[in-house]
């Protein structure tokens, strides 16, 4: 799928010889960021960050609140920079020490070594000074302080050749970035990758006998849009909920663990940008149609809804079905139905696809009548699937 969404910017960070040493990941000035989580989500779930940074170190600035909920990125060298003005030695010293012990590498922005203690500054292995906040002479003076001189230094917001020359002469071992370097790249990508990661994690947890509602809710809460829509689902006529649901955990309790993956998958596919609304409606209708038929023919079988919904995966992700299913820890019966039309669920999918295409000769009407599904009953199940699809399509 070609997706021109601008996820974030990649700014090159160089040494005094103008060699690329790291990348600064930051908001795009041209991108509309609805919520801060969308920026962090793009970095940690929507792209291969090692590919974007060519396996080099990357710098990212964030608030202390965001850092407290950030997953540790095991496969990339990430330095997180925190603004001095938002930090308190009294309130944050223990927390920052704990984060460093967990494996996070931390940097501090525009610190004054005459104000901050040695214990506090020792937490940070990197220091960032920004030329739009401090004059050059002050930065050079700070960098020569005994508390900072042995740290990794980074000077940002270099706008002119003269500034670059002064900074290289004054702090030759530092890193440098800014508009003068003119090496900023807009990173575009597929927002769907975030959903694929969450879907994979949900399926993994659902296959874990020790999983809990809290763990499943935490998976959902990684995406604010998914959280909102799952909560909204509890107010549909399907669940007749009279409760004022405000958390993903409460929504999971109402929906039930068994149905969670069904609805989470549906919501995520409906959230993918760049796809026509008609495609979403078709996928949802097929999912309900498969479920309706399966409930009559094979009442003890589970998974018909997912078989119908996931049969549309190639249309949403623009990849072939075997590749997509290889990545997902699905029940083997569901995979067999989707790839080979085998088993009870595969037979249901065959009937549904034939009915949708008007290939009546492919539908075993006699066998269906023996199971209690007449032509009129089948039509009724088909119409009912549209009714359900209309309701949940508005989520």
TrEMBL record:
InterPro entries: HDOD, RNase_Y/CdgJ. Residues 192-376 form the HDOD domain. This is HDOD domain-containing protein. Pfam families: HDOD.
């Amino acid at each position: 799928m070609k997706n021109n969404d601008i996820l974030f910017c990649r700014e090159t960070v160089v040494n005094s010889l103008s060699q690329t040493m790291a990348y600064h990941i930051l908001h795009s000035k041209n991108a509309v960021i609805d919520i801060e989580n969308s920026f962090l989500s793009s970095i940690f779930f929507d792209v291969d960050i090692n590919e974007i940074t060519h396996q080099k170190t990357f710098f990212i600035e964030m608030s202390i609140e965001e850092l407290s909920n950030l997953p540790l990125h095991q496969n990339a060298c990430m330095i997180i920079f925190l603004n001095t003005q938002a930090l308190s030695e009294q309130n944050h010293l223990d927390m920052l020490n704990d984060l460093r012990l967990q494996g996070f590498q931390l940097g501090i922005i525009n610190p004054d070594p005459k104000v901050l203690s040695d214990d506090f500054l020792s937490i940070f292995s990197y220091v960032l000074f920004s030329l739009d906040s401090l004059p050059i002479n002050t930065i050079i003076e700070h960098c020569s302080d005994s508390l900072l001189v042995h740290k990794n230094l980074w000077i940002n917001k270099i706008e002119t050749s003269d500034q670059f020359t002064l900074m290289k002469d004054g702090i030759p071992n530092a890193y440098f970035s800014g508009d003068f370097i003119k090496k900023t790249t807009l990173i575009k990508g597929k927002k769907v990758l975030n959903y694929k990661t969450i879907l994979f994690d949900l399926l993994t947890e659902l296959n874990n006998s020790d999983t809990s509602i809290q763990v499943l809710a935490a998976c959902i809460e990684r995406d604010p849009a998914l959280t909102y829509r799952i909560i909204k689902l509890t107010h549909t006529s399907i669940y007749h909920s009279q409760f004022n649901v405000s958390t993903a955990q409460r929504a999971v309790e109402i929906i039930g663990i068994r149905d969670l993956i069904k609805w989470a998958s549906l919501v995520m596919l409906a959230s993918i940008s760049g796809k026509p609304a008609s495609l979403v409606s078709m996928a949802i209708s097929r999912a309900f149609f498969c479920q309706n038929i399966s409930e009559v023919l094979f009442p003890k079988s589970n998974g018909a809804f997912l078989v119908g919904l996931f049969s549309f995966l190639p249309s949403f992700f623009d990849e072939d079905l075997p590749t997509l299913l290889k990545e997902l820890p699905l029940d083997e019966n569901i995979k067999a139905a989707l790839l080979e039309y085998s088993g009870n669920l595969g037979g249901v999918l065959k009937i549904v696809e034939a009915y949708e295409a008007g290939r009546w000769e492919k539908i075993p009407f006699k066998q269906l009548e023996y199971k209690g599904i007449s032509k009129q009953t089948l039509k009724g199940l088909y119409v009912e699937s549209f009714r359900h699809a209309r309701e949940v399509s508005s989520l």
